[in-house]
Design a protein that fits this description.
Elements (H helix, E strand, L loop, with lengths): L1 E12 L2 E13 L4 E5 L6 H8 L7 E6 L2 E2 L5 H11 E5 L10 H6 L11 H11 L15 H13 L5 E5 L7 H18 L2 E6 L2 H4 L4 E6 L2 E7 L1
Parallel strand pairs: 3-8, 3-9, 6-7, 7-8
Antiparallel strand pairs: 1-2, 1-4, 4-5, 9-10
């Protein structure tokens, strides 16, 4: 599903070129659950941004479902993000003044069939066992519940791939275990490909495979 070949990402700081990625080659199969781990500055977040079509590599080839990402314009990239990829972030990124249900509906805001929005959002909340809290605002939810709302929002367009950036970074250990159990169930039962970026070794070991980054390169890949 994901094929990266000799990917580089270079940022210019004045006359200095900084390599965030320096020749990354790896692949992720459809239906895998993979963790990307590494110290701060190792390139793992840059790698996730490229996998998520939020950024383009400076050089190299990235193919997602056979499509060469470097050849696509911004509109096509946005279309792929909306149709194929669900994003989950450490800080939840929920709008505070609207309900959990309305937050989950947000990716459908430009959809023509608005009558189905509530039904789809409730189904997504039910998948993360939170439909009973649909009318509550984020401030009325615990951190773990807010992250479940964020996962439901990522699910609403039925993505083939979920990218989760430090999804348990703001949670206590019990909530972290609950969130990881949801990811494992989505991967096992629905076959969704899940890529986790994490510092947490316990979270990393929940995946089937760990890809380790160091100084912008893949330093190791191991089966768990």
């Amino acid at each position: 599903m994901i094929e990266l070949n000799n990917i580089t990402k270079v940022y210019k700081m004045g006359e200095v070129e900084v390599y965030a990625l320096a020749g990354v080659t790896c692949s992720i199969e459809r239906g895998e659950m993979v963790s990307i781990m590494g110290p701060s500055g190792s390139g793992k977040s840059t790698l996730m941004n490229i996998i998520g079509c939020l950024d383009k590599p400076t050089s190299g080839s990235y193919r997602l479902d056979g499509a060469e990402i470097a050849e696509l314009d911004d509109n096509k990239l946005a279309e792929i993000r909306n149709s194929k990829i669900g994003f989950v972030f450490q800080t939840f990124n929920l709008l505070p003044r609207i309900s959990a249900l309305a937050n989950v509906e947000l990716p459908l805001i430009y959809s023509h069939n608005r009558s189905s929005h509530h039904k789809l959002a409730l189904q997504a909340l039910d998948q993360v066992k939170l439909s009973h809290r649909a009318t509550h605002r984020p401030s009325e939810l615990s951190g773990g519940e807010q992250q479940r709302v964020a996962i439901a929002r990522a699910l609403i367009q039925n993505p083939a791939l979920i990218l989760a950036d430090e999804p348990t970074g703001n949670l206590d250990s019990r909530s972290s275990q609950e969130i990881m159990a949801i990811f494992e169930e989505l991967n096992r039962r629905q076959g969704i490909t899940i890529v986790l970026v994490t510092h947490d070794s316990d979270v990393g070991r929940c995946a089937q495979r760990i890809i380790r980054t160091y100084d912008g390169r893949i330093s190791d890949a191991e089966r768990v």
